[in-house]
Amino acid sequence: MKKQKRFKTLAQRQARIGRLFVYPWLVGFMIFFAWPFIQSIIFAFSQLDVSPEGYKLNFVGLSNFIKALREDPNFIRYLTTEIGNIVVNIPLIIMFSLFIAILLNQRFRGRTIVRAIFFLPVVVMSGALLYVLESNSLEQFNIGAQAGMAMSNSPFLRGIDFRMFLVRITGNIPFLMPVINAIDRIYEIIWKSGVQILIFLAGLQSIPASLYEVAQVEGATSWEVFWKITLPMISPIILVNVIYTVIDSFTDYSNDVLRYILEVAFRQLNHGYSAAIAWLYFLIVGAILLILIWIISKRVFYMNE
Fold it and tell me: How many CA atoms lie within 13 A of 225 on its CB side?
């Protein structure tokens, strides 16, 4: 008797395709990262002494973690600085990315070229190169300031002049602090918004056109359409971009905490303490992500609900 062929449901086929995408990462993790991952945990609870014959581990328990939280001023200072930067950068990057994505979603000549320009930093820039450019820009500004040459042509100086202009007009410095911080970070915001713009653009293009047609028939204004249709429909994309922005900022090469971890490991050769502060950093970042996901998820709208 011929065996009847069993047909798989759509959900089963989608699950199989999903597993096929996960398997390469899982195999790569098991081959290349599983043992270093376990080894870093062992190092975090040990004092590692390196010698020509190899290395020797001395178990010290929680001493490395206690040192990081109570005795090391650099780790706490770098960590609080980066958390403060994240608190300021996330809203600026998300709002700027959404604004640019809405503009790029409109129909106009040269739209493809403009999209490529905004996404170009993601293609050609790495975190290390961005750090070098920022350092070179600051160094050139210092040289120009000392020599008194072409100071009025410096974009950084123009930002200072603009801030002084605002202060003279309003006279309210505390009120202007958010604006001043945004001006100071505009270079960083633009260069770190490429992926977010692309994700927002994909989300905007996935919104059914029928929703906008109905709103137009009902006489809704553009402002009402944005708050009642566009923003709720892309709220899941906002959550994705917030998560991406946090991870990208906390793993960027210019991050002081990461550079401090590398300095402790490869300059001070204190691999045990370096592993401990790396794990502390990982746990803190994970906790921040969970808090953000918990807060934003309450405001996320899913159309199938």
Answer: 18
